[in-house]
Amino acid sequence: MCTKQIAGTKVKSMLKLTFCMHRLPHLTRDEFQSYWQNQHPRSAPSNAAELLGIRKYVQIFPISEEENKQVKEIRDSADEFDGVAEIWIDDLETFTTKWRTGEGKKAFEDFLEDEKNFVDWERSVCFFAEEKVVLNNR
Questions:
Q1: Which of 19, 56, 131, 136 could form an S-S bond across to 85 if both were Cys, CB 3.0 to 4.6 Å?
Q2: Residue 107 CB contacts under 8 Å (≥ 6 apart), including other chains
Q3: Residue 15 pLDDT more than 80?
Q4: Is residue 29 situated within a structural domain?
Q5: Is the pTM for the entire model greater than 0.85?
Q6: What is the CATH number of the domain that holds 39?
Q7: Residue 22, in any domain of the structure
Q8: How far apart are CA 83 and CA 55, in angstroms?
Q9: Distances from the Cα of 112 to the Cαs of 64, 65, 80, 116, 130, in angstroms?
């Protein structure tokens, strides 16, 4: 895990891999989300999370385009993504050793191949990031 100094205290944090995805043009949003949620997880071995060192995986589904219209208009923004995936891993070394070699590499390649069925990567983005909690009102 990544370790940081915050106010003189060592704090463990994880690295997040974020995918902001647009669907392929021939799919509706519902078809994209259904495929992603129900079919895509089956495209790699059942122990893929272990092979890839994944600590947490979240799928984020936007509410309807109509319901998002008002926030889009306020900000004069582009169309929202059809889905966002967040994958937590320990660090870049995990990505290098587990995602790029051995059985993990094969599982990763299986996922990549399946993404061709529903993700338009020419319009989508992915990146590594670290979270910075600004507000945590619990």
A1: 19
A2: 44, 45, 48, 51, 52
A3: yes
A4: yes
A5: no
A6: 3.30.70.100
A7: yes
A8: 20
A9: 27, 27, 22, 7, 23
Cα gap 24→115, rounded to integer Å: 10
At 23, list the tokens.
């669907």
Total domains in the fold of the chain: 1
Q: Is 41 exposed, middle or buried (0-12, 13-18, 19+ CB in 10 A)?
A: middle
Contact present, 43 and 98 (Cβ < 8 Å): no
Encode pLDDT of 75-104 as tens digits.
877 778 999 999 999 999 999 999 999 999
Residue 53 structural domain:
10-129
Residue 1 in domain: no
Residues 6 or more apart whose CB falls under 8 angstroms from that of 37 comprise 59, 61
3-state secondary structure 24-87: CCCCCHHHHHHHHHHHHHHHCCCCHHHHHCCCEEEEECCCCHHHHHHHHHHHCCCCCCCEEEEE
Residues in a beta bridge with 15:
89
Phi and psi at residue 87, in whole multiples of 5°?
Answer: -125, 125
**2 domain residue, yes or no:** no
Q: What is the pLDDT of residue 74?
A: 80
